[in-house]
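Is nicotinamide-adenine-dinucleotide placement plausible here? Inputs below.
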Amino acid sequence: MKKALVYGAGGFIGSHMVKRLKSEGYWVRGVDLKEPEFTESEADEFILGDLRKPAVVMSTMFSEEMPFDEVYQFAADMGGAGYIFTGENDANVMHNSALINLNTVEYANRFKVGKVFYSSSACMYPAYNQEDPDNPNCEESSAYPAAPDSEYGWEKLFSERLYLAWARNKGLDVRIARFHNIFGPEGTWDGGKEKAPAAMCRKAIQTTKGKQMEVWGDGKQTRSFLYIDECIEAVRKLMESDCLEPVNIGSEEMIAINDFAKMAIDISGKKIKIHNLKGKAFKEKYGHPCPLGVKGRNSDNKLFKEKVGWEPKQSLLEGMRLTYDWIEEQVKLKKDAAKGLKSLGNVEKTL
Ligand code: NAD
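Reply from A.M.:
I modeled the complex. Tokens:
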């Protein structure tokens, strides 16, 4: 039986990867600061631990019988635009994620694991190639000269280079993917760390008919979004391939953010208008400039197709429908739980 170790197994992509590996018959150890939020982990062993600590990485990377066949490194200090682009979390984002990756390469090499997967991000691409919303360039070969638009992107670039250096100098067998906005059920959907797809669905669900839905910026910025199942499929295919260079994993279906908001509104079936909040009005409301990132970004899948022989097929609309339904259920569950707490409070008051 193959054995896999999943770091970040309590997070969105990591918890989905655990499910997938279990369905393929792997024995899986998951590690994270927290357990998955929405369903119980399917890992054979789930260890709560802080991967910034070398001792935690050493003990979890160690396996008594045989080294792990595969290690998936998804753990990172991250969130959506509101977390990455305000600048307030820069020190933590860089420090925490770099420590996790430094520990991972060292102990993966020491314990001679089979292959290591590292999850980089499209945020490492230079901002200067993403200024035209209709024509961004995110070809893998466009990564240098480096100029990511956030410290999060710089850390990803540093860690890509770290894994590649350990591959060159120490023989570590690594696979690296640059994810472009992965979304779907069981992802963070509120609280400030949620990404655009979840935020759009939640806002459309919570906005009442005839009211306005807030969209950050002028809505002309473009992005592409890949559904979680296709992301997991792509990672598994990459791990099985002999592609040793960093490659994009994303969708090429680029959409302007206002059209994306409209997609969520259409799914809701409500009559809702979009209110683009930007500039001074945004600062007055939130106390900091609008955190937007680059003007345009789209995955370029040529290299992945060439090296791995696979490309995603699902439409954005299909993925959004599935995500919308799941978030609608979560909103209801949260409301019911709040009602339950309130009535419990009333009972206590009467006692
Ligand atoms: P996530 O935030 O849901 O998962 C990351 C997990 O890492 C969390 O569960 C968190 O608790 C854990 N973690 C953070 N610090 C830790 C520590 N010190 N010790 C142990 N665990 C720790 O994020 P995700 O969406 O599942 O992303 C997974 C990876 O993919 C990340 O590296 C992220 O940067 C990368 N990525 C994701 C996207 C996306 O759209 N989701 C896009 C680009 C790159």
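Short version: The mean pLDDT is 95.
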